[in-house]
Amino acid sequence: MSIKDSIRLPWSPAIKLQQLTGKYFSQTTLGTSILFTAAGLVWLAVMGLAALFFRLILLNPYNTEAIAPIYYSLLTLHGYVAMYILVPFLTIGIGMYAMYKEEGMELTHFDLVNVLFWLANLGMVIALAGGPMTSWYITPPLGLLQTTFNFYSGPAIALTYIGLFITEACITAVAGITVFDGIRTRRNKGKLSIFPTYALTFTAMIVFTTPFLMATLMWYTLGILAHVYVNPTVAFLLFWMWGHPVVYFVPFAVFGALYAYIPKFAGRKLFSEKWARWNLFLLFVFTMLVWAHHMLVWPLPVWIRGFVNASTLLLAAGSGVTVLNLGLTIFLAKRYDFSDIRGLAYFLALLGFIIAGIPALILPENALNPIVHNTYYVVGHFHLMIWTIIILGSMGIIIDQFLNAFGRIAPLSNLSLKSIRAGLLLWFGSFLVVGFAMMAAGYQGLIRREIAYPVEFLPYMQTMTIFAWLGGIGFVLMAVPAFSMVTRWLVMKYYSGEVEQ
Amino acid sequence: MMGMGAASWIKKHGELTWFLVLLVLVGIFATWSLEEVVSGTSTNYRFGLPLASGVPRPLPNGTLVVNITAYQWGYTPDVIVAKPGQPVLVVLHSRDVVHGFLLKLPSGTVNVDIVPGTLSYVFFYAPNTPGNYTWRCSEYCGIGHSFMNGTVEVI
Amino acid sequence: MTKAGLAVLLIIFLGTAVMAAFISYNLIATSSPPFRAYPSPFSKYVGQPLGEVQVNQTALASLVVSQGKVNGTTNNGVILYIPFNWTLNLTVYNKESFNLTVIMGDASYTVPTNSSMLISIPHLSEGNYTLLISGEDLTYQANVSVIKDLLSPYVYIGE
Lengths: 501, 155, 159
Description:
The complex is a heterotrimer. Chain A is mostly helical. Chain A has helices at about 5, 15-25, 30-55, 70-105, 110-130, 160-185, 195-225, 230-245, 245-265, 275-285, 300-330, 340-355, 370, 375-405, 415-445, 460-495. Chain A has a single domain (about 30-405, about 410-495), classed as Cytochrome C Oxidase, Chain A. Chain A contains 16 helices and no strands. In chain A, α3 packs antiparallel against α14 (about 375-405) and α14 (about 375-405) packs parallel to α16. Chain A is globular, with a radius of gyration of 23 Å. Chain B folds into 2 domains: about 1-40; about 55-155, Immunoglobulin-like, CATH 2.60.40.420. Chain B is built from 1 helix and 9 strands, in the order αβββββββββ. The longest helix of chain B has about 40 residues, at about 1-40. In chain C, the strands form 2 sheets. Chain C has a 6-stranded mixed beta sheet with strand order 6-5-8-9-3-10, with no helix packed on it. Chains in contact: A-B, A-C, B-C. The interface between A and B is large, with 60 and 56 residues.
């Protein structure tokens, strides 16, 4: 026996690793798409709970600074999770699912994508462990001050930004791999069908825009560790170059699904496929041009403000054409199938997008923006978008995904279906009330991110909190059946020895 | 018969017509907003503000010029005493982080951000009705954000 | 023709109309009398200094003396930058339990305890001045810098 034989390990690391990844990593495109959307739902539950708790704090208009660290930590967690991980995960999951379902396009780099997935989650945990209170969008110089972090101190506050950097780098890589693999594995010829066209375009947009965020995060890290000067206006502009496009990742990916499936539930073809495809160019290009409209009250020259005033309204016009396309599809149909919970979800998503979008038209108007900038009006607008087109639209797609993957071994019972339907309606109705309460209060001057506020706004805050909790119950009604499907599948896969589909 | 004609017209021209209607609306409202900003007739936002280029030149007679420093967490001074209808120019400076200045007046709302390293300017005519008008910080600036405010006393 | 589709279309059209009306209302309600019109936004006035200021321009500043500090700063923290030829109207708020003496150049003022005083210095000429504030337990030196071609008065509060 040689020396090498005598020191051979009883098992080979490489083979053990392969066994572990084979067992615990997703090995199918469908499975990977669910990894991302299901993780999104988990993060949604976390940030939703944070919101329900800080909304309780807001029931007291006379809060003192004592409660500020708790409130702002919860608020920052809420915002960080939503924008830095929930939205990209949903986009990527929808992109993967769309390309798989409609075109048979596949991922090929499963191990890499799984590793990046877990690293992205880890990055977020590192970022949140710092207990940042800096408000979710890390405005400089506030985001660079030690006093605005709970647990990290000294140079360690940079860990928050390093954690976020890791998350965003992994997300960018996964988005790129998704589009790259998908295109490479496409076997069909001719035009790409509408759902993957939209979903993959906005998955690709992750790759174009997240580097701006990563540059901002790196700049902050250097600012903290190497005392590099961070110019507030430039850093803020750089941040918003990502910060605006990000809000369109999920909505426009969901529009792909609405274009593909609302016609099915309406029993007729889409009113105008041509307009849907042409509109994509307008939406993609203008999304990237309008970001300075978040800074209309900053000391920016007039020509920038004039440009974003006009370009944002043009982008809105593009959205207006989208919803008309779908509205006419439903209008000219004989009936719409609301009995399918996906049909209901997509309809509510469309309706919600219109209701959320129209009040936003005052925001880019330079002469009027000061009335509503940083008030609850803005908060109401963007939350209405999130609650409807983003969450309900994603729910429709996720239900479709889950039925596709688990429907055979873990079908939805009648009770589950009723629960999801009730949840969709309770969520939609409750959050419509919250959104309008927010906009009404904001128009009258209720400023956002305050823990103490003029007492005349108390009834609005009470309305928001009560109906938000009702909406939270709606989420539970939707999520419990969905998670029970996943759980039953996991149990069968790992504990009953059944072969996965 | 009418129904069928309308339906087929909508199918052919519906999207384009609505898109053109929307473009016209965009044109009207973008122009209107900018015209108000540039000509200085918008209470909320005068040409170039918060950069200095929005300040009228020369300043109207009797303009009250107030220089305010915003800091974590307050303003100094935090009181402006003005006569009814008096033009007021506020020059805002921040000594630490980005703060805001939101003042709701009967004639509109003034709302600017104060960015460290840059001066922000606000110009308005004090309300004709005597009374106290409170301004608040509108840009999240830390745990004392909710407690930063000041008063315009019109007497 | 579905009712659901009709609802969607009505919300689109009526919503757009309502919003157009709402925006118009706000644009009209928040417009005020015009003053001298400007050249177009793309010309040299963007970002230019105030310039051409007439006489009768007054810089308003206030210093609050409380708990041994002036405007929250200890010695030398406050610098007032005033444009040349302006008038400085300085209000000193004395929140201490002793009287304060304020000296600037040749002039000396006494600000009694728990009161405020307006000190008005017209037609400031160029240069740097020391503003000395003293009392029982307090000696503080603020600086007043009068500069030609300054944008506008501004108070720098250091530390």
